[in-house]
Design brief:
This protein has 353 residues and is mostly helical. It is built from 13 helices and six strands. The termini are far apart.
Length: 353
């Protein structure tokens, strides 16, 4: 019997499969759920637990989705604590127990389980220290895995601008960051040069995001995709500490200072300490924008904190420069092709569509 002859291998493979299943459904939930509340009875997504091409699953509630996401992640955490061999080497390319704890930190933050989010973020921080200022630029050329918890590896030919990989096809290295955000970085901030550069595009030099540009001299988007980094764990823990029933503002601000000190040369915490819960949350939100730009968090951060989007450099050709927290566009519609293939969804369209 395979499970009795090598139970550690079974734990490793099953734990990784459960973690992937949970994370995939959580990412779907982020797009299609109207509410992220842990006990919400709003529609979530179908949670597929078996291979059945004939199945026509219905959308479950957000609460039901969370129940299964947490169930899978907690089982994965347990299984990956007893495996047959070390899962990750230096490249951090596979899901191990630390990765599962990072997923749990993120999911608990969305679910507003702040004590759990703080606990899991702390465990990950203890296992994977922040990248230092000296190490940080190398993270974005794959010369260093400092502060990387899990990275999807790319091989030659997989990262071109026209490919369908994580970094394409939109080619993030042509993105022009907003002037409002660029002003938030300083010359002494290592992210200024690690994240941005000047590129000549169609004969017009302009400042663009070069965070995912390449491992070397090419401009092929060929760098590993950093799915989780320790910096995010500091920001999760800071927000969780500030949002708890009894806010720990000292701890939240300490996390902010730790991250900033690892990015900004000569950082002076005495000159950069927010006062009060809202000021601390605003500072954390800004630091999330600065640290995690281009990594797929901003839209969901605005959605889960029910903020209004107001573009400050919207230009003269845009027709809509604001998005209210109640707008239907925060949750995606079920495509008609999906409804045609699965009639169970016919009466479960996202509100507003």
């Amino acid at each position: 019997n395979f499970s009795t002859e090598n139970p550690g291998r079974v734990n490793r493979l099953k734990g990784q499969a459960l973690a992937i299943r949970a994370m995939a459904h959580f990412d779907l939930l982020r797009y299609w759920a109207v509410s992220y509340d842990r006990s919400s009875t709003e529609l979530g997504v179908p949670y597929v637990e078996s291979v059945n091409p004939e199945a026509k699953p219905a959308r479950e509630t957000v609460q039901e989705n969370y129940n299964k996401i947490f169930r899978d992640l907690q089982e994965a955490e347990t299984l990956l604590g007893t495996v047959d061999r070390a899962i990750n080497g230096a490249n951090r390319a596979f899901i191990d127990q630390v990765v599962v704890k990072a997923i749990l930190a993120r999911v608990n933050l969305y679910a507003k389980n702040y004590d759990a989010a703080e606990t899991y973020a702390t465990q990950v921080i203890d296992a994977r220290p922040l990248a230092t200022r000296a190490q940080f630029p190398g993270v974005w050329t794959d010369a260093s895995k400092a502060g990387v918890i899990w990275a999807v590896n790319f091989n030659a030919g997989e990262g071109s601008a026209s490919s369908g990989t994580f970094n394409g096809p939109s080619n993030r290295n042509r993105f022009r960051p907003s002037a409002e955000l660029l002003e938030k970085y300083t010359p002494s901030d290592v992210r200024t040069t690690a994240y941005f550069g000047t590129r000549n595009l169609s004969g017009n030099p302009r400042t663009v995001m070069t965070k995912f540009l390449s491992r070397g001299a090419a401009s092929d988007n060929l760098v590993d995709w950093k799915v989780f980094r320790t910096a995010e764990m500091y920001l999760i823990r800071a927000e969780a500490r500030a949002m708890k029933a009894s806010p720990d503002l000292i701890g939240a601000v300490a996390d902010l200072h730790a991250l900033r000190a690892a990015r900004i040369e000569g950082y002076n915490p005495l000159l950069n300490t927010p006062v009060g819960v809202q000021a601390t949350l605003d500072a954390i939100a800004l630091e999330r924008r600065k640290e995690l730009i281009g990594e797929g968090h901003r839209f969901f951060d605005l959605k889960r904190t029910t903020r209004t989007i107001t573009r400050e450099d919207c230009g003269t050709t845009a027709t809509n420069c604001t998005l209210a927290p109640t707008a239907r566009e925060w949750a995606w519609p079920i495509p008609q092709g999906e409804i045609d293939a699965n009639p169970t969804l016919e009466n479960q369209q996202t509100t507003g569509y």
